[in-house]
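Supplementary Text 2. Reproducibility record for the structural model of the 442-residue chain.

All settings were left at their defaults, and a single model was retained for analysis rather than an ensemble. We include the record here because the model underlies the residue-level annotations in Supplementary Table 4.
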Amino acid sequence: MALTLEQRERRVIAETSKIRFFPFAVVRGEGSYLVDEGGRRILDLSGTWGAVTLGYAHPAVVEAVRRSVGDMASASNVSTTNGEAVALAEELLAIVPGTGDRRVWFGHCGSDANDALARAVTAATGRSRFVSFIGATHGGLSGSLALSGYSAQQLNSVPSSRPGQIYVPYPDPYRPPFAGDVGRQVLDYFSYLLDTIAPPAQVAGVFLEAIMCDAGDIVPPPGFLKGLAELCRRHGILLICDEVKVGLGRTGFLHSFDVEGVVPDIVSFGKAIGGGLPLSAVVGPAEILNHRQGLTVTTMAGNPVAAAAGRAVLRTILDNRLMDNAAARGRQLADGLRRMSNKHPLIGDVRGRGLVIGVDLVEDTSTRVPATKACAKVAYRAAELGAAVFYVGHHSNVLELTPPITLSEAEAEEGLQVLDRALEDVEAGRVSDEAVAAYAGW
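Retained model, structure tokens:
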């Protein structure tokens, strides 16, 4: 008997490259749907962790890649110049707010972008310490992993340390780390650190996700982003916005930090910018990204095919105002999920902005105890019913919705119906522990 694609994969692909929530072997994709080897169409509410901004096989990306790969101008921008990389850099500088002389660095994923910029910032400023938030994910390479404060990465992998790294609680309104005004309390705590064990003269920058995804799609309270930016300016600390997962239209704004009019010093992009192809970018001051001691070179950086795809993604988002569609479909999904909470006791909180939505599942709405096992079952059952959704959070209890920002109204309604049924089946005990045992997720 012939082996299934999943069985073949288990024989040859390393487990260290996998996070799986259900058995699903993909043979092709189109728009917001994936197709498995049995021919089933699955609505992808995960968007491959938000990487397929425009969905699968979007005509603009397909045409850009076909044209570029058929007349390939070298394979990188490291030792030669190619027009696609130069044009993409020009277009990024035009849409990313900022002043002064700036440059663009290209890589392959958010992990290498954040890794590279930390090296460049350290070299240019002479400051070695960075601040990031407990729960943040800034990458999976040694350097970017050390910048991250996500519990799953710290607990489930060999820890990567960075001397002097500072971790600060994120202002989570649903599970606040401090009593009272949680945004103000976090800013005051950060100020206290700067006054005591982390003098500003040692701190190069603060890494920020305007919505912290992997910790549970946490939206900070109003005023926090602006307050953090002001604190950084006051102390001469660079504000580094990680837009890898939440940028380029997904939140209903072109950039997630636009919600409070914040202008970062440095911005990193990944996932979304390539439309499914390996591409990342950093936009920042020339004196930092031109610093020779901050050199980070990878052979395929500025690859013209990936850059062509990136240009197609940017053009399509802007020309079609897809940030507006993300806002509308996000409201539709969030409103539908909140209505569901009236009949599904598992739903403790629904939060997000645009098409970054977290559904916090709890054992009891009064105690807010995370429903970890139930969350795994809901994701598994949803896949059986025809929709792919992943889960995140410190306790792996938050369903995450980051579908393509091209999602239609009908597709959003389909997703709501599947999630409604999946929640119902799990609450009724129709999904066994054995069914999800082989798919541990985070």
